[in-house]
Amino acid sequence: MMHRRELILEALGQALGLEDLQESIVALRKHFRVDHLVYHWVNSAGDQYGCGTYPSDWVQRYLDQDYLRVDPVIVGCYQRFHPVDWKRLDWSSKPARSFQADAIAHGIGNQGFSVPIRGPNGQFALFTASHHCGDMEWERFTESNRRDLILIAHEFNQKALELEPGRKPEKSRNLSPREIDALTLIAMGYSRAQVAEALTISEHTLRVYIESARSKLGALNTTHAVARALSRGLIIV
Amino acid sequence: MIRYVYANDLNDFPRLKRTMFQDRADQFKARLGWEVDIDDKGEELDEYDGLNPLYVIWEKPDGTHGGSMRLLPTTGPCMVNDHFLNLTDGVRISSPLIWECTRFCLSRTAEPRTAAALMLAGGEVMSGFGVEHYVGVFDARMVRIYRMIGSSPEVLGAMGTGRDQISVGLWSFTEQARLSVAEKAGIPPETSRRWFNLAFGDLVTTDQPAQRIA
């Protein structure tokens, strides 16, 4: 049986328009039980798109005040690729502090975790979870959810790129013969040790091939990846 | 000390930057004979240095480069997927949980512990950012060095022979490997953590945000 997170990702995978992304992010926020989840992208032409659960008056205020220029999350993540806890960012300047006070007053929360994503041709996106709580509680949340937040962030971006008008499908998401072999054997119920032996690779290498296939399939774990590959007819058991 | 610097911040460390690219020229062109481009300043840079990679650099007390490596996400353009698919069984290794580590370089005058210090820093990046593996391209000389510091990669494939051999390998850090490289580097874990926080920010408390802002 599939877990809630995977079901939401299934729905995201079938999104036909940007409004479906909004539906997915609302469902994910509820599932993660945080105050907000937001996905925001900018491409090289300067076009912006966002979806998420921030209140509309905050979104409007952000645009009106041109907060993009002072927001330490944007400043700290732009052109980079490591995920950040907001506490690590530089909030020391006066504009940054008043921006933070304003954000908290609008219910954005005092805690945040943002995943920057570098897409093709200068495209840049951020996927953020924010919440109002103490440091300990936030640390527990990020520790247990960091991996999934990173994976979901990239899935959102993948989907948003696919929905961009005039975009050609990416060849890099195709599975290689070795990845198909690995998933097929796992789907047949072989243990990792047996699969590695059959493919004459180490288990360590197998783990990386499976991780690579999982990422291309937009799945959260191996079982989910196998289910996706089967349902798309990429592997036959 | 270890510095973690994105390419677009390298100008804040002009001496470190210049000596790093010069040491790379010395290692990859002069000593290994790789077909790399050297500019008129005697520095070695390639197209991937233009993608704003994250450099992990051992800075010597005089501010010059002792050793370094270059990190890039495998979800974008990277050497392994662009040039070495023949060494990975045709598998395009692409995941937000796997980063690429290339241009592992040691200065001629590097202290022996430099390689271990860099591996220790690689472990900080992994635990700090949720990276589960590195995939990397390395030369034959490094095989022995990695083994010496207790951080041998799993070789996926190799081409060439002898000192001309180039390999693609995988690293994944266990806690034990981490302790081992920390010991070999002679760097206490808390010092290593402090250098990481210096680059990426401390986890400053926000428990009383209202008071802090006021």
UniProtKB/TrEMBL annotation, chain A:
<dbReference type="Pfam" id="PF03472">
    <property type="entry name" value="Autoind_bind"/>
</dbReference>
<dbReference type="Pfam" id="PF00196">
    <property type="entry name" value="GerE"/>
</dbReference>
<keyword id="KW-0805">Transcription regulation</keyword>
<dbReference type="InterPro" id="IPR000792">
    <property type="entry name" value="Tscrpt_reg_LuxR_C"/>
</dbReference>
<dbReference type="GO" id="GO:0006355">
    <property type="term" value="P:regulation of DNA-templated transcription"/>
</dbReference>
<feature type="domain" description="HTH luxR-type">
    <location>
        <begin position="168"/>
        <end position="233"/>
    </location>
</feature>
<keyword id="KW-0238">DNA-binding</keyword>
<dbReference type="GO" id="GO:0003677">
    <property type="term" value="F:DNA binding"/>
</dbReference>
<dbReference type="InterPro" id="IPR005143">
    <property type="entry name" value="TF_LuxR_autoind-bd_dom"/>
</dbReference>
<dbReference type="InterPro" id="IPR016032">
    <property type="entry name" value="Sig_transdc_resp-reg_C-effctor"/>
</dbReference>
<protein>
    <submittedName>
        <fullName>Regulatory protein, luxR family</fullName>
    </submittedName>
</protein>
<dbReference type="InterPro" id="IPR036388">
    <property type="entry name" value="WH-like_DNA-bd_sf"/>
</dbReference>
<dbReference type="InterPro" id="IPR036693">
    <property type="entry name" value="TF_LuxR_autoind-bd_dom_sf"/>
</dbReference>
<keyword id="KW-0804">Transcription</keyword>
UniProtKB/TrEMBL annotation, chain B:
<keyword id="KW-0673">Quorum sensing</keyword>
<dbReference type="GO" id="GO:0007165">
    <property type="term" value="P:signal transduction"/>
</dbReference>
<keyword id="KW-0949">S-adenosyl-L-methionine</keyword>
<dbReference type="InterPro" id="IPR001690">
    <property type="entry name" value="Autoind_synthase"/>
</dbReference>
<keyword id="KW-0071">Autoinducer synthesis</keyword>
<keyword id="KW-0808">Transferase</keyword>
<dbReference type="Pfam" id="PF00765">
    <property type="entry name" value="Autoind_synth"/>
</dbReference>
<comment type="similarity">
    <text>Belongs to the autoinducer synthase family.</text>
</comment>
<dbReference type="InterPro" id="IPR016181">
    <property type="entry name" value="Acyl_CoA_acyltransferase"/>
</dbReference>
<dbReference type="GO" id="GO:0061579">
    <property type="term" value="F:N-acyl homoserine lactone synthase activity"/>
</dbReference>
<protein>
    <recommendedName>
        <fullName>Acyl-homoserine-lactone synthase</fullName>
        <ecNumber>2.3.1.184</ecNumber>
    </recommendedName>
</protein>
<dbReference type="GO" id="GO:0009372">
    <property type="term" value="P:quorum sensing"/>
</dbReference>
